[in-house]
Specification:
Layout (H helix, E strand, L loop, with lengths): L1 H9 L2 H16 L4 H21 L35 E4 L7 H5 L17 E5 L2 E11 L2 E9 L2 H9 L1
Antiparallel strand pairs: 1-2, 2-3, 3-4
Length: 162
């Protein structure tokens, strides 16, 4: 037991982490990898065979934008049902990528350099999708944002499709 503690002290943090991963991988990989590859190939072949036997049809998509006035049976979609759905809106000052090693070394007072210049507008995101740009303002002792450029709905849809 004393030898184990001595060995632990002599190993660096990276070596300890590597040893833990190696032990976990050995534990998870106790079966023969060739057997798992064969099982995977058999499962994929079975899935392809089942897919070929089934008659798969795509559901027709309704185009809400092209209703004709001469068709009384078609109603406009009721958008009121979605108006009360909550969404998350966030403002992004900027972002950057750092290695996990550097992330773990962050502490109080650390400075992270972002990809934006000072004075550049912030991104306004709704559920992670860019909808506008804006600038920070103060409203009754709280931060707010004044929208300076709103992205058109058509452009937002194009960005979602990419």
């Amino acid at each position: 037991m004393a030898d184990d503690n001595k060995d632990d002290r002599e190993l660096s943090e990276d070596e300890k982490l590597a040893a833990e991963w190696e032990a976990a991988m050995e534990e998870a990989g106790s079966g023969d990898s060739n057997d798992r590859a064969d099982e995977w190939a058999d499962a994929m072949a079975e899935a392809e065979g089942a897919g070929a036997a089934d008659d798969v049809r795509t559901a027709p998509m309704e185009d809400f934008g092209s209703h004709s006035d001469d068709s009384p049976s078609r109603k406009e979609p009721d958008l009121d049902v979605i108006l009360d759905i909550p969404v998350t809106i966030s403002m992004e000052v900027g972002n950057t990528q750092i290695a996990i090693r550097n992330l773990l070394q962050l502490n109080q007072g650390s400075v992270i350099e972002l990809d934006r210049l000072a004075g550049e507008p912030l991104d306004v995101l709704v559920n992670g999708t860019l909808i506008a740009h804006g600038e920070v303002v103060m409203v009754n002792e709280k931060f707010g944002i004044r929208l300076t450029d709103v992205i058109s709905p058509g452009e937002r849809i194009k960005r979602l499709q990419k």
